[in-house]
Amino acid sequence: MTDITKEIEKRRTFAIISHPDAGKTTLTEKFLLYGGAINLAGSVKGKATARHAVSDWMEIEKERGISVTSSVLQFNYDGFCINILDTPGHQDFSEDTYRTLMAADSAVMVIDASKGVEAQTRKLFKVCVMRHIPIFTFINKLDRDANDTFELLDEIEKELGIATCPINWPIGSGKNFKGVYDRNTRKVTIYTDTEKGTKEGTATEIDVDSPELEAFIGMENKEQLMEEIELLDGASAEFDQDMVNIGELSPVFFGSALTNFGVEIFLRNFLDMTSSPLPRKSDAGEVDPMTNDFSAFVFKIQANMNKAHRDRIAFMRICSGEFDAGMEVFHVQGNKKLRLSQPQQMMAQERHIVDHAYAGDIIGVFDPGIFSIGDTICAPGQKFQYEGIPTFAPEHFARVRQVDTMKRKQFVKGISQIAQEGAIQIFQEFNTGMEEIIVGVVGVLQFEVLKYRLQNEYNVEIILENLPYEHIRWIENKEIDLDMLTGTSDMKKIKDLKGNPLLLWVNSWSIGMTLDRNKGLVLSEFGR
Ligand code: G4P
């Protein structure tokens, strides 16, 4: 095995998805604790950014431009090199989250045991399914009163359409939380509220058949556990690694991130059940991550809100080979050889310049405005493109008007650059000959951001007029004659910057009606 192969084999790159408040930050923190990357929990940043109000966003964003804390955390644990991709919790940044998932090899879904599947999880889950990546479930907050375990699993299966396989099983919840039972080893780990923020704590493990168990968990709990084990063994899906690999079966774990219970059990199993970076599709076939040749794609661009230097950081996921700071690379979409400047990486909390990075890693490079989301970078002499990153359906729309029409050039430049970063999407009326621009965003906060940035960075004042549309679909079969398409009274025909036709509706039921009225029409929630 070469050194490069060794490095790549120990990489695990994943994202944690959850509805805000389910415990993603807390779980991440505990992972870092095990990796020895931080000494005390409570120091993971990025939480503040997820929780701000509109008013303080600009200040935060200014900081965000300089520090890249909320992008990726790398640490070592038990011979593995782990990259956790941070997904912003605030729903207004969900588009960034979607893209981040494109860079992950697997996902961990954190669910609050008293809430079950929530809106944001549902949305993010869809993206994981689209990519067929393995999805692991951590059901959190067992130290609080939880919903019935069978019902929780049932909900995941029904709502998300994925089979579940509990690897362990909780005994009670809330004040009556006694521990978890490992179905493989048939041992019960007794719940201890570890000293907050540390990884200490004495884990007591008892064989499920041992007479001692009752003393720890009580007779009633024991009886219930035995019944549930029997039920489970008869009813639940068996563990099947192949099904896990294609994202059709989710291994489920129970615990409490806050009290650090069940976290290490989860981490160990997760690392065993996930793989190192796998080949990725490109227009020249699958690219083997273990080759010596470097390749990567851009999945996120972060603008520097500092007016004095309007630079950006492009985050790329390395898909194959080794990256060396001094090396020359080829930017496929720009058709240019270049050197990536100031490549940086996050090691736990600290940002540092990287000399070497490998397939599975994420690096952030200084972007003078040449990269777009989805761009491929590879070794000179090669020329292939990774599959593009789909555009996700915006949910809010507004018509944009300039206050001073003389500043058309700056306006177009500004709005195009901001769209290139992926914060907003721009559309035009279809066939009306009007130059008016319609902006679509995933979260309404982005409207404020657009206004602020156009004013501050491009000196252009705009008026946004909200439109009532909420549903958008790309037309997949482009041969359809848009003029002939019969829609509903609340439908609008538009096109994106590439000229792709799209439809907008106010009401969701109109989508079905439009499909009924136009036989053969194929619609998609994602644009390419
Ligand atoms: P998020 O990143 O998914 O948004 O969630 P985060 O980890 O910030 O957790 C949200 C809240 O839930 C926090 O409380 C956190 O302490 C709590 N929490 C996380 N895991 C557990 C758990 O296993 N059990 C219990 N009981 N609580 C948990 P907060 O009061 O909102 O914040 P803080 O003041 O504790 O920081």
TrEMBL record:
Q: Which residues form the Tr-type G domain?
A: 9-278
Binding residues for GTP: 18-25, 86-90, 140-143
Q: Which GO BP annotation is one of this protein's?
A: regulation of translational termination
The record, for Pfam families, names: EF-G_D2, GTP_EFTU, RF3_C
Q: Kindly list the places in or outside the cell where this protein is found, as annotated in its UniProt entry.
A: Cytoplasm
Q: Does the keyword Iron-sulfur apply?
A: no
UniProt superkingdom: Bacteria
Q: Which GO terms describe its molecular function?
A: GTP binding; GTPase activity; translation release factor activity, codon nonspecific; translation release factor activity, codon specific
Record keywords, A-Z: Cytoplasm, GTP-binding, Nucleotide-binding, Protein biosynthesis
**Which GO cellular component terms, listed alphabetically, does the Swiss-Prot or TrEMBL entry include?**
cytosol
Functional note: Increases the formation of ribosomal termination complexes and stimulates activities of RF-1 and RF-2. It binds guanine nucleotides and has strong preference for UGA stop codons. It may interact directly with the ribosome. The stimulation of RF-1 and RF-2 is significantly reduced by GTP and GDP, but not by GMP.
The record's annotation in NCBIfam families points to: prfC, PRK00741.1, small_GTP
Concerning its family, UniProt says:
Belongs to the TRAFAC class translation factor GTPase superfamily. Classic translation factor GTPase family. PrfC subfamily.
PANTHER family for the chain: PEPTIDE CHAIN RELEASE FACTOR RF3
- This chain's protein is named Peptide chain release factor 3
Q: What is the lineage of its organism?
A: Bacteria, Bacillati, Bacillota, Clostridia, Lachnospirales
